What does this fold into?
Amino acid sequence: MFLTNEQIEYYKNFRHKLHQIPELAYNEKQTAKEVCKELDRLNIDYEYGLGKTGIVAWVKKGNSNKSIALRADLDALPIEEKSGVEYASKTKGVMHACGHDGHTTMLLAAAQYIKEKLEFNGTVYFIFQPAEEGGAGAKAMIEDGLFDKFKIDRIYGLHNRPTEPFGTFLIKEGGVMSAIDIFKIKIKGKSAHSSQPHNAINPILIASHIVLALKNISSQSLNPTSAHVISVAKISGGTTFNIIPQECDIEGSIRVLDKSSQEIIKSKVHEISKGIAKGLGGDVEVDYEHKYPITTNSDISYALKAIKSTVLAQNIITNFNPSMGSEDFSFFLEKVPGCYVWLGSKKEGKKMIPLHSQEYDFEDDLIEIGATYWINLVKEELS
Amino acid sequence: MFLTNEQIEYYKNFRHKLHQIPELAYNEKQTAKEVCKELDRLNIDYEYGLGKTGIVAWVKKGNSNKSIALRADLDALPIEEKSGVEYASKTKGVMHACGHDGHTTMLLAAAQYIKEKLEFNGTVYFIFQPAEEGGAGAKAMIEDGLFDKFKIDRIYGLHNRPTEPFGTFLIKEGGVMSAIDIFKIKIKGKSAHSSQPHNAINPILIASHIVLALKNISSQSLNPTSAHVISVAKISGGTTFNIIPQECDIEGSIRVLDKSSQEIIKSKVHEISKGIAKGLGGDVEVDYEHKYPITTNSDISYALKAIKSTVLAQNIITNFNPSMGSEDFSFFLEKVPGCYVWLGSKKEGKKMIPLHSQEYDFEDDLIEIGATYWINLVKEELS
Amino acid sequence: MFLTNEQIEYYKNFRHKLHQIPELAYNEKQTAKEVCKELDRLNIDYEYGLGKTGIVAWVKKGNSNKSIALRADLDALPIEEKSGVEYASKTKGVMHACGHDGHTTMLLAAAQYIKEKLEFNGTVYFIFQPAEEGGAGAKAMIEDGLFDKFKIDRIYGLHNRPTEPFGTFLIKEGGVMSAIDIFKIKIKGKSAHSSQPHNAINPILIASHIVLALKNISSQSLNPTSAHVISVAKISGGTTFNIIPQECDIEGSIRVLDKSSQEIIKSKVHEISKGIAKGLGGDVEVDYEHKYPITTNSDISYALKAIKSTVLAQNIITNFNPSMGSEDFSFFLEKVPGCYVWLGSKKEGKKMIPLHSQEYDFEDDLIEIGATYWINLVKEELS
Amino acid sequence: MFLTNEQIEYYKNFRHKLHQIPELAYNEKQTAKEVCKELDRLNIDYEYGLGKTGIVAWVKKGNSNKSIALRADLDALPIEEKSGVEYASKTKGVMHACGHDGHTTMLLAAAQYIKEKLEFNGTVYFIFQPAEEGGAGAKAMIEDGLFDKFKIDRIYGLHNRPTEPFGTFLIKEGGVMSAIDIFKIKIKGKSAHSSQPHNAINPILIASHIVLALKNISSQSLNPTSAHVISVAKISGGTTFNIIPQECDIEGSIRVLDKSSQEIIKSKVHEISKGIAKGLGGDVEVDYEHKYPITTNSDISYALKAIKSTVLAQNIITNFNPSMGSEDFSFFLEKVPGCYVWLGSKKEGKKMIPLHSQEYDFEDDLIEIGATYWINLVKEELS
It folds into this structure.
């Protein structure tokens, strides 16, 4: 629609180039260099180095002081590629298994049109962030002053999704990806030889009670329609069969889609573990950390219009279950309003290959659709 | 040894008479009347009516102010007799299924010899107590002034035991029958319709945690060699499938053989149920009652000597597991020193019929052995 | 829109008449008689007596064999009215606390217009069902042949909702009200006196383990985005403090919004309780009953159009959490496609009074809106 | 009584010599050499090397083929001595903190008298065993043919006990020290990312249920008077907060004083963990090992007589709680009858210093009492 066939071809090749040089979180130097070269080629201004390897580029037209930001991610994963494509990773044990090469490419393709052809009034920021995979690169960019240096009114993100049909957008108001909180509970008992159990407070016993009691949070304290996960994933106490240990540690995570549930869970984790440990003669130390916020779409109106200009109505899904995974785009959405959407990539007749698998490759034909969505979004917001 | 054949025959017949008129706890009026008639016949002084239907009789010789008490029990059980004996119960649904008719008889037989033949120096009290079966008749007699009216230095009890060989005594220092404590825990939650679980605090859930946590007392707080039982025997909460109730009650008993364990358990029952309930957002009310004390033999030396004068060494067992049942003789032993012994009743070749069974009947031949023991005991203590 | 002011006034008065004669489930004889009188007045054919006191009326126009059914409910609740209105219940302890008087009235008002004025092609069925409140009146009508006697292609339901603003419709595809399943688990242990715990299998202990283990279903077997409730609401075992009982019963309910979760839960309730009981030396008997199905809106397109013709876009909510309550309208939706919607009744500045409360009264001004929706629905479906 | 003052002085010095050269389990080479030198001095035959560093010596008199064995232990502990005695350990980090230097010495002292002075008829074996401290040296000697090479009818052991008054013997029939069994339960679930809990079977959850359910064994399956310990002392599962692991391991020990309880516990550990794991969708592998048998005194009659010849009646305790610790002497008692006794070492006015503490030193004055007991025992058995 907006891109010429030559441009489409160009950007597919560019994506293949990135695909061969995958880099792990905060080490995306080669990748960033390629992005900067493109921005130079397009005469687009940018700043490199926010969040270590992140890039912010911008195109300003007209005299409006309105602005939006479009975000792509740069990093790859510590996975050994087995996709079989010609342009496979040249770095052993690292691959673009999540399609960030594609996200980066489609944003550059959009940037070219926005810079060269699109009429609009305001500023468009193009964010190429590092470390989306568990590294909280978004947070790092914010801490490096993203929102201080640049006046960004709204921010938008997009991710490909191999489980949905090719060209289908998923968009919804509210929480679309869960927050993740981490807890560590150190249960403190009293050690003794196992022939003297009455001189011990067995922390493993207390831990077992707490593991079971944490289940009560789901059924007693949270609205049943509030999706959430409370998982204990690690437990460790004692060194040998006949010494009741002094301590036992449990560790786990909480995923939640609304803030009020998150607060309830946090306070209940403390209350339950404390109450039970004290009741059983021991004590606890609870570490509780908010790791990633909820990815909350606060305003989807412009994005929805842009999608409607991009694909047919039948390719728009607005009623779907949120994901219990987490996204560092949530840190951006804590600061400014915006919207995060998914773009289906599964072509009919082709096998579905999930993200983070060794066989995965980004679907090249999404580049045009994604770029078109970005361009339409700028039209909607800044015209 | 002390009794003539005629006397033995007389007392067997007397026992059969009592066996036909069994009376339940605190209603042993007919039985007491028969006992009083015998005491009258023997010219032994007595007082009737302590603990409603209890009798205290006494024989004093010499000028010593030393005194001992020997105790028998009067009451029968609400069990339908199927023993098949000629002199079976004439009262439907009530029977002497625990041999108290025998205990009473052997004490009267001893009283006759002690009154008529035995030389000793001091006072012997003969206690015929009501309501041994769950009615705490001993406690009732104490509350009616037993130890105020009568100066009793030591007290002795004896019970037949069908599981041990005929003529075998079991005697041991320390706790021989357990205390019994009762607890009721009312767990207070918050009621709500089951479609609104987050508005409820489910007391059944809390109760389940508490039931399991009470198990910790055994393994965490008590010396493993300290025999005890902590049992939840009743639970009740809720009225229908879709209303989470406000409250759930649990009820149970504790049996224990040493005071320090008893105190630990009592405090732990409170601590655990409170801690867990609070931790899970609810609360508890705990009722905890000492029902029967531990039956603690504080001095067995005279009793052991008396037994040695009564039976052969091979018929004396001093190393046996205490019983987890309770005895109201424990109330006497809380007040004065003494000793409670068992006397085996199972004759070789005869089927063992346990106490409290419909087929049970007291073994007549124990009358002589029991009476002999009582007489020997007076000889040991007061000569 | 469709009704004249006189008609509106007439139906308000009719609603007040019904309000004064509330009748409990399956006893709605007086109420049904009033409905029949109205149908007679309007010359509308009907059949009385399906599901004991239910009524099916019908209006046929044109030659199409297409048909839809519109449903109202007749029954009141065993609640003592304290609404303070002039036309309050004349039957002590019974009141229209759920607005069924209003539902019935608005359907009659719609029927008048549909009969007298509306041009359409097909058959409209008006269902006045008994026993919506826990009596499964819908099921009773089906069992009495509703779908055999009458060819009904689609069915529609509407309920007032005091928690939402006046005149606001809530409509959504899929599960909008939960199924309810009931389980009873009889835990079988072995009874013994509490002094002999080793001769018992304590079913209360097993029950406690099962109560806690049922919590695992939520976190281990169900997708976290699948809203559901698993509640134990009743537990009962034992009769006294010192007899460990033979059995302990637990009872509860399951609410679920998708069939696959329902099947998983059902099989897990069996598996978990069996496994744990056997592991602990006991056994279980599990009764598991599907009581109400999920209320699943299978096609909302016509209803949504009718709503759009009835109220402004801002008064339409399509993104809301489903209710964990149950509706017997679900039985109809198991048989034919259709849609169940809520109509907000809370006027600004007025205190919100929830359904099933003593102060509740149906909002008269909803009669016109509800009737308009029904009429628009017939226009959408049968024109 | 039997030893001269010079001999007593000699053996005290010998004990001090051993005390300075403590050696850990199975490395008692220097110690054994000293023992052999003494046996050579006394012209007593012996064999060295059973169980690596063990010694069996023997004295035969008369023509009876009756025989008894008396056992001492050789090994020291990995504890840094802080006793402050002149003859303290010369080996850093190793000390005789359990008095085995004294046990060895008193047996040699007895051997001298038995060899030189005592008249008896039969064979006396003197066993100096290695590795009593957790190394199961007794078992090693048996496996090296102790009972095959030597015809031993009965065996006797003695251990000093600082918690009891000096010169007091503790002797009792039956189990006096507990068996120890070890269990490892590998709980097998199914791993998944914590955002996908419904695709996991969380083994930590199952482990928690099992830890609590193992408590039921005590209260449901074992006679309350049967002392025992069931302790979980180690738990380990998972590696990080957001991956539900595949497996969780729990490990613990069981201590028990009677064989029937031991068998019940073993079968219940299997049954409970299997039942619960299966019920919750997982599985278990249970490793269960009998590590040390119960130390069961099968015949105490000769030992009791020997004690009565050694000390006053008031220094004999026959009614005491068994120890929940373990002893490898139990392996000997599995093969032949015998008796294990304790000898109190706490002198009035002296501070009690427990075994295995840095300040501990064997009480020299026990040498004569212990030797006297051994000599009296030979007199009782073989005269």
Remarks:
- Residues 5-177+294-382 of chain A form a domain with the Aminopeptidase fold (CATH 3.40.630.10).
- The two ends of chain A are 18 Å apart (CA to CA).
- The longest strand of chain A covers residues 154-165.
- Chain A has two domains: 5-177+294-382, 179-292.
